[in-house]
Each structure stands twice: as structure tokens, then as C-alpha cells.
Amino acid sequence: MRKNIALIALATLTLTACQNGEEKKIEQAAYGYSKAMGEYQFDDAIPYASRLTRETTIPTFKTMLSFSDTNQLFANRPATITIKKVCQTSDTTAYALYHKHTPIKDIDDTVRLILEDGSWVVHSPIKPLPFVGTVSADTASTPRHTKDPRLLKDIEKDYNAKQQQKQAATPANK
Fold first, then answer.
1. How many CB atoms sit inside 10 A of residue 157's CB?
2. Domains present along the chain, CATH in parentheses
3. How far apart are CA 27 and CA 122, in angstroms?
4. How do residues 39-84 score in pLDDT, each as one tens digit?
5. DSSP 3-state percent helix, strand, coil across the chain (nearest 5)
6. 126-161: per-residue pLDDT in tens?
């Protein structure tokens, strides 16, 4: 009887230790990514980002930063990140709830993580801006978005909708 209890206790302790080890890795990845993004240090987020996040989210944010008033953004630093909870949902997916405190505001948010090539990384891919990405010889003189027929349709649809709004707002007394 004592051997069974000891085995159960040992198994429980081992399982808890494994979970805590994984949770610690998840927490470290979530913290590293959230801290770097919160400080607008996008290159520092790369080691904590999934391949798709590195290819979409980070270049898009870097581009957006280049068009922003960085004095105003950087006034919102330093960012203090606190990981509040880690939830491993499967062997390869997890979520982390974090709190971000800055001089201007406080927010609670989550990041999704995946196990990629044996490491926990934040998986937050977004649809890239049409002008973000690599430039090849055939697209060097032409913006990338003009080569994508789906984006052309979206641009045309937006343009037509704006024209219709203008016409509806213009008095009919010509």
C-alpha cells in the first residue's frame, strides 16, 4: 500500500515538474516577445516569434513605425510586462495572459504560442501590408500590391464605395 502511494506521489511530482518546465519556457517566450514589442524593439522580438510572425507581423510593425510619430510612441516607454497566467492547451499550443504597464496606459492581453522546431514561440501572424516584403528584380519598379489581383479588387471596391458615398453626400442640384 505504501509503495502504491509513493509511486502515485512520485508520478504526480514528476508530471507537475514537467508541466512547470514547459510553462516556464512558454512564459519566457511570451515575456520576451511582449517586452520587445511593447518597447517597439521589433528586432528583439524575432527570437521569440514563429516563422510566420517573423515574416508578417514584425516587418509590418517596423514599416508602420517608420510612418509614425516616434516621439509620441517612445513617450509610452518603458513597458513593464507581467505574465499573469500561462495555459498550455496541447502539446504544441499555449496561451499567455499578460499585463502591460506603460506611463500612458495599462492593458491586459494574450499571446498565442506554438511549439516550433522544439521551441515555444509567439504565433501572431497578420496579413502583411501590400508594400511590405522582399523586392525582386521583376517587382522592383512596380509596387508589390499592384501585382496581386486580390488586392487590386479590394482597392477597387474601396474606391467605388468611397465614390458612391461622395455622390450620396453631394446635393443633386447641378
1. 10
2. 2-151 (3.10.450.100)
3. 10
4. 999 999 999 999 999 999 999 999 988 888 888 888 888 999 999 9
5. 50, 20, 30
6. 875 555 444 433 333 333 333 445 555 555 666 667
Phi and psi based region of residue 162 (left: phi greater than 0; alpha: psi -120 to 50; beta: remaining) = alpha
Residue that is written with C-alpha cell 516621439 in the block: 71
Q: Which contacts of 129-137 are long-range, i.e. CB under 8 A and separated by 24 or more positions?
A: 129/60, 129/63, 129/64, 131/63, 132/59, 132/60, 132/63, 133/59
Task: Tally Cβ neighbours within 10 Å of residue 174.
Answer: 4
Q: What is the pLDDT of residue 135?
A: 40
pTM of the model as a whole = 0.63
Residue carrying C-alpha cell 474606391: 159
Q: Are 151 and 143 in contact (CB under 8 A)?
A: no
Between the alpha carbon of residue 72 and those of residues 18, 40, 49, 68, 103, the distances in Å are 44, 12, 26, 9, 12
Q: Is the dihedral of CA 56, 57, 58, 59 positive or negative?
A: positive
